[in-house]
């Protein structure tokens, strides 16, 4: 099995791409772009910070930050209004009982986000949201996930600021360590979801889906629990040139999941689940055809990856699908569109599932 871990320095330090005019037009048209009372740069001016530890005393890589006494009341009120925009389209009348409990900052990774903890004063129920530097490739990843996956995402942009909701679930690495072999979870459902998640990531060109970049959502059902894997990090949307970078099965961090899948899933059943997810993705694309076309047109004109990465990836995809149409693609947006066209063509022609090495970790 080809391994794409660990990432090289270029992967860790992917540049942040500005939101261009076409993407900005899209965000405005579909009410993602809004006026916000707090910007990312304003939050950067914190007064002091201290490391945030987990309940076992380990460093979380987050720091709790503090602001001057004069600024705190105004800032907290503004953050509550941002939360209201994110959750209820700005209706602050249903948010007055909330308060800001903590503001955290993470200097690790590409987006260097702030995490805001919001608490309900009536029942102490917490929620979180994130304020980050707006990165065009990340925004494309969020929007493609919203349109093509079973998951809806709330996020807002304002100039160079990006606001994202919290994606709840068990981090993938913790799930592997503590939940994977629990008897109350049906193995076939875990394996089925890994196949589907692998396929969605590949078609959308969402890269770097190693275990700590996705969460596992467990939903109790009348016969056991249902499983869904959700991406929670979109920094590496359509940037890397390696085809395997967009297949979660090839990361060593995910190897226990891949081995688990191979143990519990028959090869033909894996093909079935792969085809099911392809069909669902195309159905979602059809429902959002106009919106998706506007997004991919903007993405095709955006330089969100070095030209050499586009060339490398198109050659890899052309070989993978045995389709020279990929060689005509000049951008990452064009490659995502080509992936969808390829799925549509194969389904219309009644062809079988596309590639075994996108199912069970075969090399």
Characterization of this structure:
The chain has helices spanning 9-12, 21-29, 40-43, 72-88, 136-148, 172-178, 187-204, 255-264, 267-287, 289-300, 307-321, 332-348, and strands spanning 48-53, 59-66, 98-105, 114-120, 126-133, 155-158, 161-165, 170-171, 214-221, 224-231. The termini are close together. It has twelve helices and ten strands. α7 crosses α9 (267-287) and α9 packs across α12 (332-348). It is globular and about 65 Å long. β9 and β10 (224-231) form a beta hairpin. It folds into two domains: 9-165, no CATH class; 170-358, no CATH class. It has a seven-stranded antiparallel beta sheet with strand order 1-2-3-4-5-7-6. With 363 residues, it is an alpha+beta fold.
Q: How is the topology of this model organized?
A:
Blueprint: H1 9-12, H2 21-29, H3 40-43, E1 48-53, E2 59-66, H4 72-88, E3 98-105, E4 114-120, E5 126-133, H5 136-148, E6 155-158, E7 161-165, E8 170-171, H6 172-178, H7 187-204, E9 214-221, E10 224-231, H8 255-264, H9 267-287, H10 289-300, H11 307-321, H12 332-348
Antiparallel strand pairs: 1-2, 2-3, 3-4, 4-5, 5-7, 6-7, 8-9, 9-10
Helix pairs in contact: 7-8, 7-9, 9-12, 10-12
């Amino acid at each position: 099995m080809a391994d794409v871990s660990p990432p090289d320095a270029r992967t860790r330090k992917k540049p942040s791409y500005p939101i261009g005019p076409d993407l900005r037009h899209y965000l405005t048209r579909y009410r993602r772009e809004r006026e916000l009372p707090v910007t990312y740069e304003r939050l950067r001016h914190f007064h002091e910070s201290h490391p945030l530890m987990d309940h076992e005393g380990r460093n979380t890589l987050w720091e709790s930050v503090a602001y001057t006494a004069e600024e705190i009341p105004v800032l907290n009120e503004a953050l509550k209004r941002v939360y209201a925009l994110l959750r209820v389209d700005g209706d602050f009348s249903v948010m007055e009982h909330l308060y800001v409990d903590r503001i955290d900052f993470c200097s690790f990774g590409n987006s260097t986000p702030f995490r805001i903890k919001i608490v309900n004063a009536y029942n102490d129920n917490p929620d979180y949201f994130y304020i980050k530097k707006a990165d065009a490739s990340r925004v494309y990843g969020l929007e493609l996930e919203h349109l093509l996956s079973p998951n809806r995402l709330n996020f807002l942009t304002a100039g160079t600021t990006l606001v994202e909701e919290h994606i709840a679930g068990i981090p993938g690495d913790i799930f592997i360590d503590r939940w994977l072999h629990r008897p109350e979870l049906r193995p076939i459902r875990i394996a089925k979801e890994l196949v589907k998640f692998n396929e969605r990531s590949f078609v959308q060109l969402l890269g770097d889906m190693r275990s700590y970049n996705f969460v596992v959502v467990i939903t109790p059902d009348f016969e056991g629990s249902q499983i869904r894997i959700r991406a929670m990090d979109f920094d590496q949307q359509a940037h890397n040139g390696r085809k395997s970078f967009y297949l979660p099965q090839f990361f060593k961090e995910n190897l226990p999941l891949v081995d688990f899948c191979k143990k519990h899933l028959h090869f033909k059943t894996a093909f079935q689940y792969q085809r099911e997810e392809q069909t669902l993705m195309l159905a979602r694309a059809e429902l959002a055809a106009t919106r998706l076309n506007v997004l991919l047109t903007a993405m095709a004109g955006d330089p969100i990856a070095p030209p050499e990465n586009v060339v490398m990836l198109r050659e890899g995809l052309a070989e993978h699908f045995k389709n020279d149409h990929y060689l005509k693609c000049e951008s990452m947006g064009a490659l995502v569109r080509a992936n969808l066209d390829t799925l549509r063509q194969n389904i219309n022609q009644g062809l079988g599932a596309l590639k075994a090495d996108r199912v069970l970790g075969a090399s």
